[in-house]
Predict the structure.
Amino acid sequence: MSKVKLQAPATEMLLLLEELAVFSAPGPGVTRLLYTPEWKGAQHFLQEKMAAAGLETRMDGVGNVYGRLPGREAHDKVILTGSHIDTVVHGGKYDGAYGVAAAITALGYLRETCGQPRRTLEAVSFCEEEGSRFPLTFWGSGHVTGHYDGGEAADCADRDGMTLRAAMAACGYPASGAAALREDIGAYVELHIEQGIVLERAAQQIGVVQAIAGQRRYTARVGGAANHAGTTPMGLRRDALAGAAEMLLWLERAAQDAGDPLVATAGRLETYPGTPNVIPGEVRFTLDIRHSEAGMLEQFCQAAAAACGGIARRRGLTFALEETLATAPAPMDRELAERLEQLCSEQGLTHHRMVSGAGHDAQLFAPRCPAAMLFVPSRGGVSHAPEEYSSPEELAAGLNILTALLYELAYL
Ligand SMILES: [Zn+2]
């Protein structure tokens, strides 16, 4: 295989990221929620940038924007690369945007220096991934992969009571998003910031994602007996909060013992009646458990349920667990991951195999086509905050690996 020296223009990508960050609601950082004026402005701006890069552009029925570089072998399936354009409230300017800016820069550069590819390449800016405005996630890639058909928009509303359907209509999108489904995607590649501290701690330049962790979320309910804090002796109490505390410490220890990449978090805890002079009669807490292997995830969740149940019984409490979310782990394509590692070695970049604890658009594609994901370091591991930062050198390194992989897939 003959190798050409590829050097996509990182300065163009960095400028694009700065320009994109301007499309934001007021306040700290970047706030670009689905179907808002700033979101719409950003998607149209990106469509113009794709056209300026010589790509054939279009926007689909839910607001995903594509830039296409048609290949000679038009019957072959498309190699798709990109990420999402929406942000969390007061987020940073790299989450999602980096993968989109890099995709446009890489395709524009490949077109200019290498001409028409053998296989068709497309850059994509997905309309939504975060779930920041409406209570659902992956609205963009979920339509492309058939996870959504648009019917969900009718009974899903934002904080102001506006339905997703109404928000779409206000933006000029039809009621049904079925037109966004694609059956012609042959591979999906996503470049993203890590949003964690693993690469920085390991002093590695590129993270090669092996799998995106599966997630389980639960609401746990611990029932005891609310009673007078002054008149009820310690030996005669059924304190739901003390029981919940023992459960959470068990979970922390068990998750530590299980080791990486298992993580377990109780992010919200409510105590009833929540009064200083009353023994807590009921506690509800949320549980978020993640692992990259389905079997390990299932095993841990079962062990956690059994342990919490045991603690409750010993303390004379009741315990109930309700599952509120379950996503399967998404393994990335092994061959593409190996190619990424090979490219890192060839370019003299250090790399690290890792699991993504965060969800990404790539997990929607993984069951349908070979999917690959690569990370660059996030300073201090900070993301979903205005302080989110990756250096120009780190961002350029990711762009170079992405460009090299797309070249191999589409030109050789
Ligand atoms: Zn993201």
About this structure: The chain has eleven helices and 16 strands. Residues 84, 95-96, 129, 192 surround zinc ion (CB under 6 Å). The chain has a mean pLDDT of 96. The longest helix spans residues 294-314.
